[in-house]
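The instructor's notes for this session suggest beginning with a concrete chain rather than abstract definitions. Hand out the sequence below and ask the class to guess, before any prediction is shown, which regions might be ordered.
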Amino acid sequence: QAVRLRPEYGEAWYNLGLVLYQTGRFSDAATAYRHAARLKPDDVDVRINLGGALRQIDDLAGALLQLRMAARLAPNDAMARYSHGALLAERRQDKEAETELQAAVRIDPTYARAWHRLGTVQLRRGAAAAALASLQQAARLAPRQAAVQADLGRALGKQGQTAVALAAWRN
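After discussion, reveal the predicted structure:
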């Protein structure tokens, strides 16, 4: 109703995008977020959410563009840097992903998901010691996350700490 009454109101398009995304209508959400982005081009949350919706409909190039814009618009926003880094990691652009994820944890040292993703990227790049440190931090922040414990176990195994790795996997 709000977008019909005031189609120039970017916040209404953004809110519509949120509802559509939450109900699994990702293509429609992307359309709503595009309208919001046209009306609010410097809104970081709009760019992050548009990137997420585009990722859900497998428009990875479009998602990457939006998330890169979000990171550039707000270089000190941990979510913007994490979102960009996470998609880069998904695309196996590990060097750039590591830079973005390191920025995210510098901005917000309590961001467990960013520490976890950073550790998995470092592990994939062969930087086992750095990965272990990142994954240990993720495990301290999110001790009940099974994926964190599993990846911590992998990093410990790479460091030759088999007994400790087994304990992490059992957790």
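Then share the key points. The longest helix spans residues 26-39. Residues 3 and 12 are 6 Å apart (CA to CA).
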